[in-house]
Write a structure and sequence with these properties.
Layout (H helix, E strand, L loop, with lengths): L1 H27 L3 H10 L1 H22 L4 H22 L3 H20 L30 H24 L1 H4 L20 H10 L13 H12 L5
Helix pairs in contact: 1-3, 1-5, 3-4, 4-5, 6-9, 8-9
Length: 232
């Protein structure tokens, strides 16, 4: 359901921008009569689109249960842009019209990058303990290379757990079963390892992509950890 609302939200935002962009072109072309006629014919449509932007956006905020800075910024700018756009066309003010369009374009960029600066912020993984540095392997292992591999695997799994706790548990829950914002129940997942890595990397539905945020090794570690949450 949340994914459907996301698609609806994107659709109404794009339609609103197209309608407003056309009106802005008419305004700058000084075709005031045509603009007035178009505004009159699309008055109800504009009201519906504006309302849907607010309603679907509010639902997505509720579904995500997230109050990150970029989301708060988007909400504030949207609440400013919609009435500003109405005023700009009513007053036939080109500067306000350009400002409104700039806000919507900026908000679209924020939505695509999940960042107010259009740059995906790297996540700093903060280890819960120093266990990773003191992990020991089973005493019956004879090969030095095997000892190193075992230790690396355990460290990677621990890192995966730490990353999962910091950025995934809010929606999936520490046991993978929470399901906030349409998050999948990881205990019932049947995806193979490559598919899990792909989902984390590229994102899916309301889940953001973590390519460029987590390293390939970190994504592999998280994928391995989530596979361990599956019901036996």
């Amino acid at each position: 359901m949340a994914k459907g609302f996301l698609h609806l939200h994107i659709t109404v935002v794009v339609l609103f921008m197209l309608f407003f962009g056309y009106k802005l072109i008419l305004l700058f072309a000084n075709k005031k009569a045509t603009l007035a006629t178009f505004r009159q014919k699309t008055k109800v449509v504009d009201m519906i689109l504006g309302s849907l932007i607010l309603l679907t956006g509010a639902y997505l905020l509720y579904a995500l249960q997230s109050f990150e800075t970029y989301l708060i910024g988007k909400v504030i700018l949207t609440l400013v842009a919609i009435p500003l756009g109405i005023i700009s066309m009513k007053k036939e003010n080109k500067l306000l019209g350009l400002l409104t369009m700039a806000i919507f374009v900026y908000n679209f960029g924020v939505a695509e990058t999940n960042s107010l600066t259009f740059q995906k912020e790297k996540i700093v993984v903060i280890p819960e303990t120093a266990e990773a540095d003191t992990i020991t392997t089973a005493p019956d292992t004879t090969s030095p290379a095997h000892v190193i591999l075992n230790k690396n695997d355990e460290v990677a799994l621990k890192n995966g757990e730490v990353i999962f706790t910091q950025i995934c548990a809010a929606c999936h829950g520490q046991d993978g079963k929470l399901g906030v914002g349409g998050a999948k129940d990881l205990s019932k997942s049947t995806l193979n390892h490559q598919a899990v890595v792909g989902t984390i990397t590229q994102g899916k539905g309301l889940m953001q992509p973590y390519e460029g945020i987590l390293s390939e090794q970190e994504i592999e570690a998280v994928a391995t950890y989530t596979e361990g949450l599956r019901s036996k």
